[in-house]
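Whiteboard transcription, Tuesday session. T.W. wrote the structure tokens on the left side:
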């Protein structure tokens, strides 16, 4: 698989590309902490002579091109930590930090889990279905929407569909909704997204959306990405491929992966208790939806999230900044 072939040569190519970015950073104080969310940025900082570089390692599958020699590579889970040690990454350049999660989502875990648990089994199941950054999954997600339509019409399931900034996904969502006879509302900007979230939080979280399906579609990338983060607070289940969203603190229905490396992120979520195993077929996804419409599975998933939060599983971003500042202070 191409997405599992990030070997030593891939690392060499990444570093060679990073060296071309050195001029962008040469004028900065080399003692400044650099926290990079992509290995190319971290490699560029190391090449430019920065001495305190933190690389936030993506995914849950160890590959050479996602680590950076000369940086402190922080990983999200223990299996990745073990694998990188076996590959030969020096222990001094490797540390387990936790998941990369937005601050608002982490701080909202107690209240969001309490709302979901209260809704479990007695309110419509809210499925947040975002598409990946590349806009893949069109056929699978369209088929899933059609398969879910009887449950939506029966008032048992609600759909929050985030097409992001992908026109072809917006059109695919609209076609799936209209061909299934589903009424839907649309939201097209950040003001509308925040108003949608606030409306659902009204009356102690008892409010419901205007229609059982809501389509979110945007012209800019930032709003497209931020919308998923915002809606996680009012959704019951995040229904997505096992990308970086597999690490989010919300019950997750992991649907068919795009890259083979993503399978390991689904395993991470499943073992933590906050996500399902990967549902490769629409029929498998529907089976999980039927389980999630009952009380037991969602209640246990939310309880797992609360437990994980108490031991810092979702504190990766906070830990990364703390470590960077501690290293800067020690170097003075």
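and on the right, the sequence the group agreed on:
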């Amino acid at each position: 698989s191409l997405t599992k072939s990030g070997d030593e040569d891939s690392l060499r190519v990444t570093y060679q590309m990073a060296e071309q970015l050195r001029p962008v950073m040469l004028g900065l104080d080399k003692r400044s902490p650099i926290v990079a969310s992509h290995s190319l940025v971290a490699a560029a900082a190391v090449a430019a002579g920065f001495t305190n570089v933190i690389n936030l390692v993506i995914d849950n599958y160890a590959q050479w091109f996602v680590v950076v020699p000369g940086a402190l590579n922080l990983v999200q889970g223990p299996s990745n930590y073990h694998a990188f040690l076996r590959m030969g990454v020096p222990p001094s350049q490797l540390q387990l930090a936790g998941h990369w999660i937005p601050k608002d989502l982490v701080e909202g875990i107690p209240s969001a889990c309490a709302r979901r648990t209260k809704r479990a089994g007695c309110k419509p199941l809210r499925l947040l279905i975002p598409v990946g950054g590349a806009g893949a999954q069109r056929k699978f997600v369209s088929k899933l929407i059609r398969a879910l339509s009887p449950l939506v019409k029966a008032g048992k399931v609600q759909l929050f569909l985030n097409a992001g900034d992908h026109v072809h996904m917006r059109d695919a969502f609209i076609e799936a909704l209209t061909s299934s006879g589903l009424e839907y509302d649309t939201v097209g900007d950040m003001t509308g997204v925040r108003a949608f979230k606030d409306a659902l939080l009204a009356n102690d979280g008892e409010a419901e959306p205007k229609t059982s399906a809501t389509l979110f579609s945007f012209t800019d990338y930032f709003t497209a990405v931020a919308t998923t983060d915002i809606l996680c607070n009012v959704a019951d289940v995040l229904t997505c491929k096992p990308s970086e969203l597999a690490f989010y603190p919300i019950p997750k229905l992991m649907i068919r992966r795009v890259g083979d490396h993503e399978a390991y992120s689904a395993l991470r979520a499943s073992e933590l208790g906050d996500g399902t195993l990967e549902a490769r077929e629409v029929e498998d996804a529907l089976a999980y939806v039927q389980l999630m419409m009952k009380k037991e599975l969602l209640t246990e998933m939310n309880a797992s999230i609360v437990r994980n939060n108490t031991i810092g599983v979702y504190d990766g971003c906070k830990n990364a900044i703390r470590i960077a500042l501690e290293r800067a202070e020690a170097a003075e």
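Someone added at the bottom: Strands lie at 34-36, 53-56, 72-75, 94-96, 125-130, 157-164, 184-187, 213-217, 237-240, 252-254.
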